[in-house]
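Priority: medium. Attachment 1 of 2:
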């Protein structure tokens, strides 16, 4: 992130009807007229740390350590919570073509016209692997929907193929692990065209990363994986660290699961450090050097989730939380990336 990001959004679009879905007291049309550029919120200024990204180009870049996840906020459901998050200065938003909300995010960003636009990560869906033409078309679709000239971070969503919902065959039907490599090579070509500022992967295991490394010049800038004290992923994180791959953790709050949020070790830790269980879980990931992207529809939770810097858990609590590792996965309904060839 830096000043160069201020030029990312060049086009201005008219506010569409769908923007009437934001609360009436916060009429976006008025906001735009009064404030061509919305720059601040009622929140105190907070500095969110950034982590340098190795993006395979000579242009230095970094990623904010906190962002807002938008999975499950389909179509216009994304606007009210994301608007709140952006006005509280969340510096990053995470989406994916499969979340079916890129267009609404683009509309909201255009309506807000923030002085510093957020860092955007989005993802190529697993079924869209294969020919450069298909991959390029999908990137173009995301660029158009988000209404930006370049994606800050473009991730391959899953190392394997998709599945036809009814017919039960894989998509693409001719998928092989080699297709993942070809897909990655096409994705890295977008660094040269300038349509992506960094490219990365998601849900890759060490085996998948090793394969990429053996066959490709550019290694991923980021691996977005599920990670929380019930799924510590130490070996994978250590591997990424060694290769300069930034780990972005998802499901840090276990999708809100009470078993994680009210686990005695987490609540005891929260009491000891004077924070909430959610803050402890997010801080645990941050202290391990990861980027976090919690999702929340609640303004109070969003505020809470931002207050995870400028204090520490310390080695002893970190070790206690690490010891909760039990291999629980919340994402992907029981699918395990380890099973992808
Ligand atoms: N790459 C991938 O394959 C992948 C997979 C899954 C997710 N992701 C990304 O990661 C993001 C985060 O994951 P997620 O949305 O699945 O789950 P999550 O962030 O772990 O959990 C979200 C849930 O936690 C609750 N919550 C948020 N803040 C809280 C707080 N302070 N106290 C108590 N509860 C709180 C939310 O409820 P309220 O709305 O009531 O606050 C919501 O139900 C996604 O949105 C998506 O961007 C990526």
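Attachment 2 of 2:
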């Amino acid at each position: 992130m830096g000043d160069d990001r201020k030029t990312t959004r060049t086009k201005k679009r008219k506010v569409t009807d769908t923007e009437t879905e934001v609360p009436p007291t916060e009429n976006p049309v008025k906001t735009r007229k009064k404030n061509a550029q919305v720059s601040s919120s009622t929140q105190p200024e907070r500095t969110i740390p950034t982590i340098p990204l190795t993006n395979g180009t000579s242009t230095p870049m970094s990623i904010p350590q906190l962002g807002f996840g938008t999975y499950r906020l389909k179509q216009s459901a994304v606007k009210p919570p994301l608007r709140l998050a952006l006005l509280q200065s969340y510096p990053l938003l995470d989406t994916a073509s499969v979340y079916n909300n890129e267009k609404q995010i683009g509309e909201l960003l255009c309506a807000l016209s923030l002085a510093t636009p957020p860092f955007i990560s989005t993802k190529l869906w697993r079924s869209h692997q294969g020919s450069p033409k298909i991959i390029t078309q999908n990137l173009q679709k995301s660029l158009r929907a988000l209404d930006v000239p370049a994606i800050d971070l473009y991730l391959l969503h899953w190392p394997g193929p998709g599945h036809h919902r009814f017919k039960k065959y894989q998509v693409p039907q001719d998928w092989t692990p080699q297709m993942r490599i070809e897909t990655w090579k096409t994705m890295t070509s977008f660094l040269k065209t300038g349509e992506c500022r960094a490219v990365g992967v998601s849900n890759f295991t060490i085996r998948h990363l090793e394969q990429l490394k053996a066959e490709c010049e550019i290694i991923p800038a980021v691996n977005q994986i599920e990670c929380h004290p019930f799924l510590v992923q130490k070996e994978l994180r250590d591997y990424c660290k060694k290769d300069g791959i930034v780990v972005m953790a998802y499901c840090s709050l276990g999708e809100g699961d009470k078993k994680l949020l009210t686990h005695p070790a987490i609540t005891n830790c929260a009491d000891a450090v004077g924070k909430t269980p959610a803050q402890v879980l997010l801080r645990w990931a941050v202290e391990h050097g990861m980027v976090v992207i919690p999702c929340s529809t609640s303004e109070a939770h969003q505020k809470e989730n931002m207050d995870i810097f400028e204090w520490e858990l310390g080695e002893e609590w970190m070790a206690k939380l690490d010891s909760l590792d039990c291999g629980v996965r919340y994402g992907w309904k029981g699918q395990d990336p380890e099973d992808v060839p």
